[in-house]
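#structure-requests
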Amino acid sequence: MSQAVIEIKNLTIGYGERHVVSNVNAFISEGEIVGIIGRNGAGKSTLLKTIRGLLPKHSGEVTYLGKKLEEYHEKELACKVAYLQQHVEVGFGYTGQDIVLAGRYPYMKWYESESEADKQLALDCMDYTGTLELADKPVTEVSGGQKQRILLAKVLAQQTPILFLDEPTIGLDAVSKQIVRDFIKKLNKEKKVTVILTTHDTTDIEALAKRIILIGKGKVLYDGDLKTLKNKYGSNVYIKI
């Protein structure tokens, strides 16, 4: 069996006293691309945020590389897993390179500024995502697809072995969606990054996820490969998404 980068045991998540999803168990191996799917309100984003430690869990355990989530300091965890959330708001005046450089902050002391090596790494990451020409351009002046690729360059600059993506193609046109999908596949193949993503887009699922976790009715309904999922639920499987 491959090395577990993330192990989830009997995890229950929610808000306040309300349970959203109960008794989640998953063993995520190095290099996997896992798609978390389910209807609106099923708890996809809540699950992703809780696994990352951005929301408190109700019960259960999450470990990264054999170490419990609670035992990590935030900067230490940020060196292990990068998280790209939905609807990232960028302040006026920040350039593409400014945004990408933010991915280097987990490695810096509070009193340090970005080094020349950090700046060069940011440019290299922008080159890798096809956004190098946007390095000096205010992010408020770029298209949605360009902004998403800049944000992907930021998480690439963070240089983590694990990447969380919450609806990475939402709101993008068809061409931009395909560019983002191609980048995710390239990152997984060339950098061996383990990817966990939530999505409503059936094309994302078909193109990216080798493994599906389907949540609904307050629990995990399915965890396995896409072909078996379709065999189980038939052509109506996406009604549950």
